[in-house]
Amino acid sequence: AVEAAQKNFDIKIFATDVHPGSLDFAGRGLYAAEGLAHLGPERLERFFLRQGGSHQIRPDLRQQIVFARHNVVKDAPFTRLDLVSCRNLLIYLQPLAQKKVLSLLHFALKRKGVLLLGPSETLAGLADEFETIDTHWRLYKKQREGRIPAAVLDRDRRFGHPIPAATGETIRSDFS
To answer: What does pTM read for this prediction?
Structure first.
């Protein structure tokens, strides 16, 4: 299916992380054979070139990936994305930061764009903004265009600490 899509679409993957070392490792695309043992021989042959005891991602696939340092909590999101995979990041954030990140990811997606979360992650009170595609795999589709209103982001505020909204304005709490 992906090969057929590539004939009709220019696929670009944005691989981001806040940690430069992780980006360097991923950008090299060189993996020890043991690290890819879970892949079948067909996938190894299709997506990698063997280099001694390692496997290198095929150059044509690597050219479709842009590696960039990006702090999903602080930096402006990429926009007009069809799919955002944010697996196992939100579990490390406090609830208010989770909600902020989810609102930024919502803004980043095209209408009907898909959000993929990790198995232990939820939509942090923003379920009305997404349609569930698959509960088990944590796949959600963006419902509507626009930014999530500050009132929605502010709904669960505690202790009166303002956080930036997706619009750049400051969300104030009734508790301050």
So the answer is: 0.75
Closest CA to 82 of 20, 22, 136, 9: 9
Q: List pLDDT tens digits, range 57-106.
A: 999 999 999 999 999 999 988 999 999 999 999 999 999 999 999 999 99
Label each residue of the chain as H, E or C. CHHHHHHHCCCCEEEEECCHHHHHHHHHCEEEHHHHCCCCHHHHHHHEEEECCEEEECHHHHCCEEEEECCCCCCCCCCCEEEEEECCCHHHCCHHHHHHHHHHHHHHEEEEEEEEECCCCCCCCCHHHEEEEECCCCEEEECCCCCCCHHHHHCCCCCCCCEECCCCCEECCCCC
Task: Extract the tokens encoding 28.
Answer: 């090299």
Task: Give pLDDT tens digits for 34-43.
Answer: 999 999 999 9
Ordered strands of the 130-134 beta sheet: 81-86, 109-117, 139-142, 130-134
d(CA 13, CA 147): 23
